[in-house]
Amino acid sequence: MKIYSRYAKKYWYSFLLGPFFMVLEACGEFILPYINANIIDKGVAKGDVNYIINNGIIMALLAIAMMITGILGANFSIRGSSRLAAGVRADVFRQIQKLSFENIDDFTTGSLITRITNDITQIQNFAQTLLRGMFRSPVMLIGALIMSFSMNMKLAAIIFLVVPFLALAIFIIIKTASPRYGKMQKAIDGLNNSVGETITNEKVIKSFVREDYEIKKFAKINDELVEKSTSALKVMLFMQPISAFAVNATTLAVVWFAGRPIMIGDMEIGTLTAFITYLSQVLTALNFLANIVLQGTRAAASHRRIVEVMNAKIDLNDDMAQCKDKTVDRGEIEFCSVNFRYFKNNKDNVLENINVHINAGELVGIIGSTGSGKTTLVSLIPRLYDADQGEVLIDGINVKDYAIESLREKVAVVLQKNTLFSGTVAENLRWGNENATDEELVEVAKIAQADSFIQGFPLGYESDIGRGGANLSGGQKQRLCIARALLKKPKIIILDDSTSAVDTVTDASIRKAFREQLGDTTKIIIAQRITSVSDADKIIVLDEGKIVGVGTHNELIKSCMTYQEIYYSQKDKEE
Ligand SMILES: Nc1ncnc2c1ncn2[C@@H]1O[C@H](COP(=O)(O)OP(=O)(O)OP(=O)(O)O)[C@@H](O)[C@H]1O
Ligand SMILES: [Mg+2]
pTM of this prediction? Predict the structure, then answer.
């Protein structure tokens, strides 16, 4: 609840003024029927025109005042609730930024999207209803009860027959709907996951002509949502006919029992009209309170999902870091008996007993068949994941002992599946360092062999690259990603298969520039092509999560079977 109270305090005036104006409006609600009754009984019945006019003017003024207070009340309630939602949304977003890869894998992206949008909207709707009704409805309820009891005790008692009936209905509805809301939100997660995956991969779907398959898959998920939301929401809608029935039954009972007193002159018509209005106000107030409870049930399901994110145990943090003030200043890397697996209850390790030492400033190649663990191995350096056993040291300090931000500041990774964002070339490069000068942009682009093609664009560095870099070729994208990483001026740069779409000549030029201009940066290059790593100071050969060879090209070609296999298979293809 703390996440909400913070914003309720921050926007206290809306949280105070909203209910305040709604209560003022409610006061008008029970004065109006009273004046109305007097007009009928004292004015109309006795033909007193002045009385009618005077009281009519009061009624009109009151109606205007009620409209103004009603509008103000609604306005503040909406403001308060949307500010509250915005605040919570910002908090959840901040928390999502802190989540580790593992946390995100656990929640799934679609679910995180639902939680930060739909679930928070449920909270917002509830807050809005609450602000509008939490004081207004009780005030209306009590006020209308007092008014009706003061008019006619016996008739007013009819209301107590209806209340238990309504209470029972609400109880059953809440009991039934509550678990169904959780399921409904889960179905929305599924939908968001599917939409996200399909839209980001639209090109693949089109090239495999799998549209029909995706449409069918989506229809199934969509049907599931229909089923879950119908099952939850229909229960809620029962409330409306039930309370309408309660109002009608009460009115009927009142008219029935009022017949006699009216005939013998004990009660006047105007009083009866007012009385019926008060009773329906009592029921409306009860109905609104019921609505608050029902919406609260729905919001509670969403609240639980938001809290899950806010309280997610971020397994990858730097709370226990011993050397938070240290930065990576040389770039020497050491893996000591490292074991790692993605699913902690899996039997087999993805990385098994990794021991390797990389000197500061070295150019190191990593090679191995697909799925051998190359990406996983380098992910442990900037702590995208944490080793399960053993230690990863940089400059002799365990990576877990650096502040995560300062560690990642100095270790740049060009991920295998990298992303660019809509905007210009320069904007994308400045992701690496927002304060970089134009000269620095050109400098890194030259190293990444990107400058010449960027200069070829009509607007050069100010050219728009389209959504996700849609206007660029695969190799151009890769080179921009490398330049972006270099702009961080890292002490360690890791290229995970980042030149796979670049021709061999350009690939060699990148490595040459790396060697000549990044002398004191440690360079780790993962590649499929042996030519991409053969001139490295050291090559690490991975096979099924184990290191099966470390050395130069000439050493490995003599001693490492796996390396030989890769070498000859690629050589054969060339010939
Ligand atoms: N996020 C993940 N969750 C679970 N398992 C994963 C994940 N990423 C990789 N794996 C598994 O870990 C193993 C090693 O994968 P990794 O991505 O490190 O291989 P790789 O050598 O980089 O392969 P490639 O050359 O195809 O990029 C594979 O068996 C893969 O299925
Ligand atoms: Mg990989």
Answer: 0.76
